[in-house]
Amino acid sequence: xxxxxxxxxxxxxxxxxxxxxxxxxxxxxxxxxxxxxxxxxxxxxxxxxxxxxxxxxxxxxxxxxxxxxxxxxxxxxxxxxxxxxxxxxxxxxxxxxxxxxxxxxxxxxxxxxxxxxxxxxxxxxxxxxxxxxxxxxxxxxxxxxxxxxxxxxxxxxxxxxxxxxxxxxxxxxxxxxxxxxxxxxxxxxxxxxxxxxxxxxxxxxxxxxxxxxxxxxxxxxxxxxxxxxxxxxxxxxxxxxxxxxxxxxxxxxxxxxxxxxxxxxxxxxxxxxxxxxxxxxxxxxxxxxxxxxxxxxxxxxxxxxxxxxxxxxxxxxxxxxxxxxxxxxxxxxxxxxxxxxxxxxxxxxxxxxxxxxxxxxxxxxxxxxxxxxxxxxxxxxxx
Length: 383
Ligand code: ADP
Ligand code: MG
Known about the structure:
About 20% of the residues lie in helices and about 35% in strands. It is an alpha+beta fold. It has two domains: about 5-235, P-loop containing nucleotide triphosphate hydrolases (Rossmann fold, 3-Layer(aba) Sandwich); about 240-375, CATH 2.40.50.140. The two termini are about 35 Å apart.
């Protein structure tokens, strides 16, 4: 077990296709035993980051420290880490037992007896004892994934690296493996870096999520902090499903209150001291679907909207609304189920209004606060 520190980690690919900055000046410090999840859209640099940590990709600049060792110049086998890939990368001609044992043969000087014992222990932990003599072709996707995990766990690495390990599994198994992986990581207490494009995976598994966009780390924070206090509009809209409604609005100050308006519609009225903007300022407003309260009797609502589509979800309904030339999605309880074409009233608690600077896209107001707290500042962000 060990801490993991990335300092100014940068990867520039420079080949026949041209020059591409895949990862730029990335700083991150994971605590001993921490579960950090890198999340972001496809192509944002997650795998490149992981592959640099693993030693499968050279570093253009920056350092990687595991414990108190700088490892970026070391061979993968000297870094004391284990990686699990989306593709499993099992040896097809070997049994599960041989696959799991393989790394031990090459990375330790344990004798055959000791190796066998370790393999049995890990198989018991992962509940694959009865598969040990099967070859990968005889296994389901979930079983192969467990063997791949076993091969990583058996080596007692200081750091565990996983790149989209659940992407090839069906939805039900994915959600079960999510819980199991978390339990295993908890038991082993190994510092873990996990990469996914799936925000649900990120939100449910991580101690802290590291949100990336276009090669740059945007924010590193516990899931609930990133959700309630995103540093910018990208993070705000990336996390959450359906995603946050964002739109241009004007700040209309009057006395100690501020109203957010668009096309004559007043979306919300907030205490003036919670909005760090001048009268008449243009802002980006953000409203999460679950924060829109929809009432079929419109009288006491903040504003009116017409229903374009009502999606029945069973536990929740998603309502697609239209007002002030703007589409909004609301996530409402199952008993709120208006017909398309109906006019409904919508209310928003002022504390739940998010505001972003239209130029820099940085958060001006997040949930419940006048301004984002300083400790939530992104680790890297160009001004
Ligand atoms: P992610 O895992 O987040 O989907 P990657 O780390 O795989 O993203 O890729 C980040 C960027 O680097 C992408 O624009 C990708 O096209 C580019 N890239 C990845 N690998 C290479 C490579 N071997 N050569 C050139 N460009 C690459
Ligand atoms: Mg990837």
